[in-house]
Design a protein that fits this description.
The complex is a heterodimer of chains A (356) and B (420). Chain A is of the alpha/beta class. In chain A, 34% of the residues lie in helices and 16% in strands. Chain A is built from 10 helices and 10 strands. In chain A, the strands form 2 sheets. A 6-stranded mixed beta sheet of chain A has the order 3-4-2-5-6-7, sandwiched between helices. The longest helix of chain A has 24 residues. With 420 residues, chain B is of the alpha/beta class. Chain B has 2 domains: 276 residues, Rossmann fold (3-Layer(aba) Sandwich), CATH 3.40.50.300; 79 residues. Chain B is 52% helix and 15% strand. Chain B contains 10 helices and 10 strands. The chains are: A alpha/beta (356), B alpha/beta (420). Strand 3 of chain A pairs parallel with strand 1 of chain B, so a sheet runs across the interface.
Chain lengths: 356, 420
Amino acid sequence: GSSLEPEECSMEPPAVPEEEVPVTVAPGPVGCQLFGYVGIEAVLDQMKIKTMKTGFEFNIMVVGQSGLGKSTMVNTLFKSKVSRKSSQPGQEERIPKTVQLQSITHVIEEKGVKMKLTVTDTPGFGDQINNENCWDPIIKYINEQYERYLREEILITRKRKIPDTRVHGCVYFVPPTGHWLRPLDLEFMRRLSKIVNVVPVIAKADTLTLEERAEFKQRVRTDPQGTPGVPHVSPAQLKSCIPQIQEDLKTHAISVYPQEDFDQDPEDRALNDRIREKIPFAVVGADQEHQVNGKRVLGRKTKWGIIEVENPAHCEFPLLRDLLIRRSHLQDLKDITHNVHYESYRVRRLNESNRP
Amino acid sequence: QNDDCRTLSLSAHVGFDSLPDQLIKKSIKQGFCFNILCIGETGIGKSALINSLFNSSFEDPPSTHFLPSVQLKPQTYELQESNVLLKLTIVNTLGFGDQMNKRDSYQPIVDYIDAQFEAYLQEELRIIRSLFSYHDTRIHVCLYFISPTGRSLKTLDLLTMRSLHSKVNIIPIIGKADSISKTELQEFKSKIVSELVSNGIQTYQFPTDDETVSEINTIMNGHLPFAVVGSTEKVNIGNQMVRARQYPWGIVKVENESHCDTVKLRKMLCTNMEDLREKTHAQHYELYRRCRLEEMGFRDIGPETKPVSLQEAYEAKRHKFYLDLQRKEEEIKQGFVQRVKEKAGMLKEAEQKVQTKFECLVLMHQEEELKLEEKKKVLEDEIAEFIEKKATAELLQSQTPVSTPVDLKRQGLQKVSAYA
């Protein structure tokens, strides 16, 4: 869009209508003032009606070793039993020999807004003795969805609305083990952040005490860059993985969501910077309700207390939820998938056949 | 993959009901784009209507009647109302209906609309593309101005609309409607509608499938074609400046719904802008794209009825092109070889000629030489003869002492010396 001067719409006729008349012959946009109400903003209502009618599609993938609480996390996010485990109860949970991809789709509705949610689980990831190339089935799956969309798009007679099965966000669960990212984590995130939006989270963060968390937040604030290789000061900081993870990601040039390159304006950048400071989120998943102070809350009950999932003081789950669903990021995830990742897949694919 | 789709109920507020708002916020940031094509004879009030519709004064000098052919002139304006930014492009047809021979009046218009579709298609087919930030120039609605004759549609109108109705949303309107009386207007409207139907021309109908707008849209559909009046001037009526046309017998207020349908048109354009854009993209553009791709030789189903992807079609075309290229190369090579052969033949011939000429010359030379020999011989013979003759003559001379003049001279000299 060219440079425009926002002009206010005034109800009374102005003294002198200010217009920019293009001097050149080529028709360029002319800023015009409206003398009265026209009703253009009715287009917003129409958009709303249209989107409510067609509904939304959202596809999310969860990747991580078994036992990190992925299914519970997804259930907590969408406040219902959307995960595969919950939808197919009674099935014996066996760790498969190879990485498998299983998707399950639900239609959920809230206040008239319909969403077709597809959750893809990846059992078997990182569970084998030899985990080399365990990301290959995942990459293959993601590319398959792009391929499907591409084929629909280049048909001559194509559908009015192409079904979107592309993965919009991939939540990667990092176990709260070490202070550095393991080679598996680095490899996976490096490869995948090139083709899909990756959101890393630290799973089962209830194993980190408040002090430890406070400490690494403090460290992040005073020394956000950090220096790799600097020995830790105290054993308590052994568990302070967040700044190290950020450092790791930076060293390996892994760009996780929200990517810096796609910040659209200073306002976006400020908002996303605040999120980037906190990534990866330390989350706890729980799908059981307990009674705390007379209120029913979602949480995990332990011998030493109840961890409230929605309490920002207890864990950063609300931040993850805000990022993925609320505010502007769900649409943003879809847009980046469509405008960036899908387009680069398309370029690769169409260029492939060029080579003899 | 598990493909069954179950409905699930949520136990608490998740928060994705903000999705439509997220989408709207993004759209507002991006801005909206709307392109209107105005077709109508010169002087029928196109510019005045646009000014009235958008309550603005777009600079547009009146055009002449003497243009040799129909020209399309697009102009883009940026309007803002509260937080909605609209990039409005008005395309005017200059000289429509002015020529003596109106046979090709509609062709430039069809070409223009197709060109916009083509530009979008080219962008879409590109390998590295940016549809996201593409400035859409496709025409979303065509306002066709009908002359307020009160009788029926002109042939030019029918021809033009028939060539455009499958390419663009047409909304027929009656221009300068203040020259028709109310009773005549109703008859005229019905006549127009029936003529359109009998000629198989599909004009745009406001959508009636959504409950919130279906009622009002159905009513509005009944008012089509809209009888509009536009005015660039304002008249002072009761301390307010109102857009109107002042006649000696009264004032026609543009914004008064009982005077004309301009306000209705404005409302309908604004409330159905999204639908117009969608129809343009999902229906008219898709049709153009389909025809164009088939024209270019692409197929969805291959010869063995297997679905062929565009990419494979590209590949096949490229392969064919390569083969063609090779064939041409061969042809050129052959041609070259042929020419070389010919030239070599020519050269050989020439060489032959030279050879024969040479031999001929040699022969001639020999002949000449022989001749010369003979002559030489003859000459030598003559010389020999002459020497013989000379010898005999000298012999004869030495035998007879004859006073030669030389002796006489000597004698004379002696005599002279004797007397001296």
